[in-house]
Specification:
By secondary structure, this protein is an alpha/beta fold. The protein has 2 domains: 21-128 and 267-339, 3-Layer(aba) Sandwich (D-Maltodextrin-Binding Protein, domain 2), CATH 3.40.190; 131-260, D-Maltodextrin-Binding Protein, domain 2, CATH 3.40.190. It has 14 helices and 11 strands. It has a 6-stranded mixed sheet with strand order 2-1-3-10-4-11, sandwiched between helices. It has a 5-stranded mixed sheet with strand order 7-6-8-5-9. Helix 6 (164-175) links the parallel strand 6 (154-157) and strand 7. The longest helix has 28 residues, at 2-29. It is globular, with a radius of gyration of 22 Å.
């Protein structure tokens, strides 16, 4: 009887503590505004995902805070990443969204990186990106075989080192001999798209998810021809588009593609919190993120915006980020040389 009473008392204490914690977080977020800092200009894929998410995630957070999106472009997303690490308060009210390619750049010693990716708190990713290369119809290039055999140098638009727009073409130039010239420094893929439309540049490495969502006009008009996909296996919607790994003829080339190209997708679109954010708020935002990913109203909006939803939760994203730092040490000097 005493054991039963003790167990009941312990259960009651645990329940009260849990309810107290939920109540405290409900009161914390009530009437507050959560900011999502997007490291690119408005109108691109990162911005579109964030604005769609912002319309729905708040109702899954205790206290139902408002969520707003602020754009902080610059230095290929690096300004926003450094801001999240050094300046943003670790109070659960500021979420960052920037390119996951910066994690590899940290490992490779990119100048200007002022964060340690292993210390961020991770909320999740809405989609695991499948990167492809598209070229303007004015080039006359309709296939990767034609491009490689003609050795036509095509200008590709980029956002900055650490972005797939830049890093993947740099790797492919070495691994498969892709004849390209990188024009980098655009504030986001929306700006790259404008440069593409004016033929300032004639190609881009972008995710299939962003092509469908924010380059739909260029796809439907035939202005952009997709010629190569940079993933380990074909995307179900592009089963016949060739894989980059198939064109890597050397052992080194294949290793570089596997390590530096195939690994990009799962960590490409991370949502993060500053280091030191209270663990209970981290868990609340992780749960709210995944609940939003299942929300029928969010999914309906995502369909309208042509956004693919294939999420990873915060714990799995964190594991994938840590895997980046397990890069084969023998590849690091070569990777530094290619991605400098």
């Amino acid at each position: 009887m005493k054991k039963l009473f003790a167990w009941s008392l312990a259960s009651a204490v645990f329940l009260l503590a849990s309810l107290s914690s939920v109540y405290a977080q409900d009161e914390f977020y009530r009437g507050k505004t959560v900011r999502v800092i997007v490291g690119a200009s408005a109108g691109g894929g990162y911005d579109t995902y964030s604005r769609t998410l912002a319309r729905h995630m708040g109702k899954h957070i205790p206290g139902n805070p408002a969520i707003v999106v602020d754009n902080m472009p610059g230095a290929g997303f690096l300004i926003s990443a450094n801001y999240m690490y050094k300046i943003a308060k670790p109070d659960g009210l500021t979420i960052g969204h920037f390119i996951g390619g910066l994690f590899l750049q940290q490992l490779l010693g990119k100048p200007g990186v002022e964060f340690d990716a292993r210390k961020f708190e991770y909320i999740g990713v809405p989609a695991q990106d499948n990167y492809m290369i598209g070229v303007h119809k004015s080039t006359g290039i309709t296939s990767i075989d034609q491009w490689l055999s003609s050795k036509t140098v095509i200008k590709l638009g980029g956002v900055g080192a650490g972005s797939a727009t830049d890093d993947i073409p740099k790797v492919l130039a070495v691994a498969i001999g892709l004849p390209m010239q990188l024009v980098s420094g655009y504030k986001g893929t929306a700006d790259v798209r404008l440069a593409f439309d004016s033929q300032e540049i004639l190609g881009v490495c972008n995710s299939w998810e962003s092509f469908k969502s924010t380059w739909s006009k260029e796809l439907s008009s035939g202005d952009v021809n997709l010629v190569l996909q940079n993933v380990a296996k074909p995307h179900p919607e592009q089963p016949k588009l060739p894989l980059a790994i198939s064109y890597a003829k050397t052992d080194e080339g294949q290793k570089l593609v596997r390590a530096l190209v195939h690994s990009v997708g799962p960590t490409a679109r991370p949502y993060v919190l500053p280091p030191g954010t209270p663990k209970d708020r981290v868990q609340i935002l992780r749960k709210a993120f995944i609940d939003a990913m299942k929300d029928p109203e969010f999914l309906s909006d995502a369909v309208k915006a042509k956004l693919d939803i294939n999420p990873l939760d915060g714990a799995e994203l964190e594991r994938n980020v840590r895997e980046v730092f397990n890069l084969d040490p023998q590849l690091i000097p070569r990777a530094k040389e290619i991605l400098k």
